[in-house]
Amino acid sequence: SSLTEIKFTLNNQRVNSYLTFSNSGLSTPLLIDITNNFFFNGIKSGTNLDYVVNNNQLNKTYFLGDLDNLKPTVLVPLTFRAFTANDVKNFLLISNKALSAGVNSYVSYNNTRNISTTVAYTEDLYDEFYFGFHHPLAIKNFCAWALAKGTTKPEYLLLLGKGMEHSKVQKSLDLVPTLGYPASDNMLTSGLNGSVLEPGLATGRVPAKTNEEIDNYLNKLKVFNQLPNEIWRKNLLFISGGTNPSENLSFVNYQNSLYNVAKGNFFGAKSSYISKNVNAPISEDQTERIIKEAEQGLSLISFLGHGSATETDISFGSPTSHKNKEKPTVYIVNGCSTGVVYGNNYALGEQFILTKDYGAVGWIATTSEGVASYLTAATRTFYNNWFVNMYGESIAKGFQNGLKVYQQNNDKLNMAHVRQYVYLGDPMLRFYSPANVDYEIKDTDVTYDRSSLNPLKDVVLHTKIKNLGKAINGDSVTVKVQRTLPDNSVITLPVVKIKPVFNTDSIELILRNNIEQNIIGNNKITITIDPDNLIQELNKSNNSATIDLFIAGNGVNLIYPLRNGIVSSTSGLTLKIQPDNLFTKNA
Q: CA angle, 408 as apex, 405 and 409 as ends, to 5°?
């Protein structure tokens, strides 16, 4: 009898299989890959059928039947989510219904930030924007529609959920798809909104598999957004790897070029450097220093070296070893594949982003191989945006515009880097960016050599001045010193003018001692920054420091008789004296 239908399994390791079926009685033959939900068009010649199928996995099950005889067993009505123009807000959040509890928590937090959010679940997007198929173009089509039709034009896109690079065979884990190979979240919106290779929306991803992981990240984000104005928020750590001294030196020089951007207007960064011992494959001995610096507080850790999805050639240590719960950190990790978060295992970036309390609140890296010069050139555009040109804008917006500036469509390596950079984190997260300067001086910031105090010698005050706020290269800053003597008279020293302080600076102030000014005893020294309030600051209450400076005399005092006193007789009179310095020996 003729062939009417057949179900079979192939276990072939070849790239492709050539299948021939003879004596077919099928009028409209259809070959279906049941394992992956694909169908194949073949060649029908009389009663013979020929097909070529790809073998991208073992043990695939196929069904060959007649399309005319295939009928659905159950028809289920589908109601679209039916997005409208008024549904589109400034912040698009795309997730999966399996993560709805975490989505609700995120939207509630956005409401406290006065951020209007559009929630779209991938299950709905597949139906409404890609014919019911599980495919990343559903996300791209939705974003294109939102940009074209939305009453409010969106600016930010959060991909809240795990995406898989090989989504065809791992659909259950592909909660929020990425696009392309190597994986590229940028491609989900590139070409939209006037963009070319760069993303058309400021995009971030939190690659969570569970609602608990969303809460882990969200709690770190809340801590970060409530951080006070403190000087550690201008701290940057530069880590340079390499396989030999020459390569390491070039990496260090690349990192220096980045620091030169961040230290000026308007961020005013302070840097620390860690460089690899190139004789060791992984510099474990330097991990403790990285951990310590993170605990003390870092705005950004900037790495350039060799890496993979799971490690870097200078180990950061585990996220839980970074006890930075109150000081979450952003990482930019320039090394091969350090941005891969689209596989089965928890990659390095996922670990740092999703670990509870500790680790990272932002992670920028690439999803495949990188070239140091290209990575640095791209990162320099990010730095120029984050710390200068787009100061105060979100990390994702600086990242988006940086890729726009960096891209060169006649350079394939450049194009690959633009595609492969990924930002993990909230798309509205911002680096520390106060609106004005904020000079600070504390009592403990004024020191002097106590052992050398002498009424006949000048006193040198070593004074540390910090700028907790914006670094602005403007007019000079005035420093006033007032000295209250033991008799409560006040001496105002000539004002001192210094250059604007970007981060931290130390100055020396000289107190001239004059024995005739009754300086013996306790002197109260008050140092004030900008005493005439000529500079607009975030806070003026931290502009003064006061210390007590006790000066002991070096001469002698007459105890009896009293100075200028009159005695009735000199008979039996004893002259008593005491040194001014009570610690003088053999007095």
A: 130
Name the CA radius of gyration of the chain, rounded. 35
The pLDDT assigned to 415 comes to: 98
293 CB contacts (<8 Å, ≥6 apart)?
235, 237, 272
**Count of H-run helices and E-run strands, the chain:** 10, 28
Alpha helices in 234-276, H assignment, sequence order? 245-262
The sheet with strand 60-66 has its strands ordered as 6-10, 60-66, 29-33, 38-40
Q: Which one is predicted more confidently, 553 or 441?
A: 441
How far is 490 from 339, CA to CA, in rounded Å?
A: 62
Instruction: Spell out the domain ranges in the chain.
Output: 6-69, 229-425, 439-553
pLDDT band at 10 (very low <50, low <70, confident <90, very high): confident
**β-strands 156-160, 48-54: how paired?**
unpaired
What is d(CA 414, CA 412) in angstroms, rounded to the nearest whole number?
Answer: 5
Question: What's domain 229-425's architecture?
Answer: 3-Layer(aba) Sandwich (3.40)
Q: What is the mean pLDDT of residues 516-523?
A: 87
Which of helix, strand or coil describes residue 41?
coil
Q: Taking residues 95-101, what's their average pLDDT?
A: 98
β-strand 235-240 against 300-304: which pairing, if any?
Answer: parallel
The stretch 45-66 carries a mean pLDDT of 83
Q: What is the pLDDT of residue 307?
A: 96
Domain 439-553 has CATH 3.90.180.10: no
DSSP secondary structure code for residue 437 in this structure: B
| Position 265 pLDDT exceeds 60 | yes
CA distances, 573 to each of 506, 561, 564, 566, 576 (Å): 56, 9, 15, 12, 10
In the block, residue with structure tokens 């975030």: 538
Tens of pLDDT along 528-550?
Answer: 999 999 999 999 999 999 999 99
Q: How much is the pTM?
A: 0.84
- 208 vs 126, 178, 251, 357, 559, CA distance in Å? 20, 14, 33, 15, 82
CB neighbourhood size of 223 (10 A)? 16
- DSSP state, 307? B
Whether 439-553 and 229-425 are alike in CATH topology: the answer is no
Q: How far is residue 482's CA from residue 493's CA, in Å, rounded to a whole number?
A: 6
Reduce the secondary structure of 329-386 to three states and give it as a string: EEEEEECCCCCCCCCCCCCHHHHHHHCCCCCEEEEEEECCCCCHHHHHHHHHHHHHHH
Phi, psi of 332 (to 5 degrees): -120, 115
Q: How far apart are CA 206 and CA 411, in angstroms?
A: 30
Burial class (CB in 10 A: 0-12, 13-18, 19+), 7: exposed
**Mean pLDDT of all residues belonging to the chain:** 92
Q: From residue 515, how far is each of 200, 488, 584 by CA, in Å?
A: 73, 16, 19
Asked whether 509 and 481 are in contact (CB, 8 A), the reply is yes
The pLDDT confidence band at residue 557, using thresholds 50, 70 and 90, is low
Q: Dump pLDDT digits (tens) for 282-310.
A: 656 899 999 999 999 999 999 999 999 99
Per DSSP bridges, beta strands 439-440 and 202-206 are unpaired
pLDDT at 335 over 70: yes
